[in-house]
Amino acid sequence: MTVASAPRILRTVQQVRQWRLDCLLNRESVGFIPTMGALHAGHCSLIAESLKQNDHTMVSIFVNPSQFAPHEDLDAYPRTVDSDMDQLTKAFTKKQVSAVFIPKVSEMYPSGIELEVSKQRGAFVTVHGCSEQLEGGSRPQFFRGVATVVSKLLNVVTPEKVYFGQKDAQQCVVIRNLVKDMLINTEVVVLPTLRESSGLAMSSRNAYLSEEAKSESSVIYRALKAGESFYDEHSKDGEAVDAYLISNEIRNVLSTAPSGFKLEYLSISHPETLDDLTTVKPGIGALISTAVRVPREDGQETRLIDNIVLK
């Protein structure tokens, strides 16, 4: 029986750059999956695709402080590096992840990092026009933090391809615009959302929920699918569909959620610009996205996001 070898762990920017230089000298391609750890099957699906498409695959594990506001759950965010490494070693048998970048905060933010934006010093990246709405409406510094850390990681790793999941739809739009506007020579690959058998989108935040709460949270996907079905039925002849009516179908299903579920937002927007739509036209389609706060056994709430794409 062959024992899987563990990926090489790199801790510093210099180590990553030396590893990447060796790949370049050998004319070997690199695929990259940036993560905040707490790896699940959704991450593994991204990694599996990278392993198919590239000579080498690198994964980063870094809980990025700049995308958390002072009142958010940075300290509570799950940090499971040991189990993550165990999973990376055992989950892939035919081909292994080549390297894992696990930097300290000081490595990624050499000027230091404060959670309060007004106290921050150093360089930060903002992608205007697609960062302010949806998730950005309630978390104004979130995509500034995402764009900043992804810029840093792509600058260090310089991969041929970087992989993200459709679950984080707005993040994908932000990063595509970032890569285009900053002239970064990396292809952004977006793969479909991986879901649990109930339909619940896989997320590291699901770890906060009990099995009962996860089962109940499947109502989010059922609601989105109801909106999709309404659109498919009413767009058969190529006619535009009223976004308000699609929204009503979704809200009707969400209204059946257990007590304590709170709809934070429901948006039907252009799939590329994220502008709000009044009608959805076949061939252009729309991104339907939502955030729902789900009660936990400890009295706190977990914020779940999900989306579905209309064609």
Task: Describe this structure as you would to a colleague.
By secondary structure, this protein is an alpha/beta fold. Helix content is 34%, strand content 19%. It has helices at residues 13-25, 41-53, 81-90, 105-108, 135-138, 142-157, 169-181, 211-216, 219-234, 243-254; strands spanning 8-10, 30-35, 56-61, 99-101, 161-165, 187-191, 241-242, 262-269, 279-280, 286-295, 301-310. Strand 2 (30-35), helix 2 and strand 3 form a beta-alpha-beta unit. The termini are far apart.
Key phrases:
6-stranded parallel beta sheet; alpha/beta; 311 residues; 10 helices; globular; 34% helix; 3-stranded antiparallel beta sheet
Give a concise summary.
By secondary structure, the protein is of the alpha/beta class. It has helices spanning 13-25, 41-53, 81-90, 105-108, 135-138, 142-157, 169-181, 211-216, 219-234, 243-254; strands at 8-10, 30-35, 56-61, 99-101, 161-165, 187-191, 241-242, 262-269, 279-280, 286-295, 301-310. 34% of the residues lie in helices and 19% in strands.
